[in-house]
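Reopening this one. Same input as before:
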Amino acid sequence: MRTSLLVPAAAAAAVLALAGCSSDDGGGSSADGEWPSEITISLVPSVEGADLAEALDPLTAYLSEGLGIDVNGVVANDYAATVEALGADQAQVIITDAGSLYHAIEQYNAQLILRDVRFGATSYAAIAMTNNPDKYCTDEVVTAAYGATGDELSYCNGTETGADATGEGPAGVEALANIDASTPVALQAATSPAGYQYPIVAMREQGVDTDALNQIPVEGNNNAVLAVANGDAEVGFAYWDARVTVIEEVPDVADQAVVFAYTEMIPNGGVAASSNLPEDLVAELTTLMDDYADSSDAAADVMFNLVGLSDWTNETAQDEITRYGEILAEFAG
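Same output, byte for byte:
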């Protein structure tokens, strides 16, 4: 569900350099309300570099036609670069992750206009899973269907109560208090929201001394699941529900890695616009992008292949982005 969206740095740098040139030629701010002749969107796509033109062209053509001005799409080699592009006026619109949205809003007064929708949701929980349910589950383990794949997976502590899993957090977090210095805990890189940041905050809130954790370092959500399923760690954390990524490798993962807690919800990314753009342009752009996935089957395919999304929504829930910024601040430096 959460995939790496990196593209070759050399290609990204080249495209951003071109964007910098074009932004001096009519694509920048328009303080008097007059629309610019062109705008540039910076994003980190999920396709390989060779496919960028094919992936970007349908979206930018759709927006160009709808707005009546040229809309260019350029590639950033990471999410932070989208914020830098916005700040330098090399891009007036960015499609980026939640942390970068927060920084764009705080540093450059960007306007949050849309949130990413994946599998019908604009946010997701981190799961706490264990191979020792007797220690962490206060009730019986139940199964529920993960809607994205239909797989039946295991849950306890009221994380799921129906036939279909919802992934709504926080839930069951009190059980995190059972983690102590002797507990092997699989954690991902400190920059991972679901694999490290939100779990660390949740454990601290339950009185766990996270500085004394017996950390089992893992790379990637699938490896966090495998660490628990294979017995290398007693507890592990990943996005909901990363267990489906290893079902072929570990068919009985539902038995070997039981979810016993959900953290608070982690926001998906979204779309932000420069405060220099005229309000009526931003409003029209927002409507067009909000309608894009439903405009045709081809558009829905482009949406998923370009940025791994099923839709955008104008229900931005900016408080979730603000909360994410607060959590980021705990790990700054």
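So the earlier flakiness isn't reproducible anymore. For the record, The mean pLDDT is 88.
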